Amino acid sequence: VQLVESGGGSVQPGGSLRLSCVASGFTFTSTMRWYRQAPGKARELVAVIGRFGAGTDYGDSVKGRFTISRDNSQNTVYLQMNDLKPDDTAVYYCNVNLGDVDYWGLGTQVFVSS
After folding, report:
1. Which of 69, 85, 93, 98 has the most Cβ atoms closer than 10 angstroms to its Cβ?
2. For residues 80 and 62, is the Cβ–Cβ distance under 8 A?
């Protein structure tokens, strides 16, 4: 199983970024998740998307600003992040749980600052 995130970077408050996670090594029609971890804080769930994209859920702090989506033909899950705030600064990780085993990518850094 391999998960490769990309799309992070530095942005000013109010800006937008789109993260991507390319998956391989398993049947991609699995529930996919984005997490984030800020310095000194626990890893938190940001967004979840069901097998075929019909069901999504978000952490309270990102509802209305972030959108998770997927393209099963490209084995890719996306996280569109709008109206970014300094508190969104974190390393963002892609996750899949297979047979009660969690798999993670290496993460992509998002830095929001003026």
Report:
1. 93
2. no
With residue 104 as reference, give the H or E element that holds it. Answer: strand 101-104
Residue 24 has pLDDT above 90, yes or no: yes
Q: How many residues does the chain have?
A: 114
Secondary structure of residue 87 in the 3-state scheme: helix
What token pair was written down for 29?
Answer: 């029609």
Within 13 Å of residue 105, how many CA atoms lie on the same side as its CB? Answer: 26
Q: Residue 106 in 3-state DSSP? A: coil
Residue 54 or residue 106, greater confidence? 106
Tokens of residue 63, six digits: 């509802």
Query: In this model, does residue 54 exceed pLDDT 90?
Result: no
- The whole-angstrom separation of Cα 82 and Cα 66 is 6
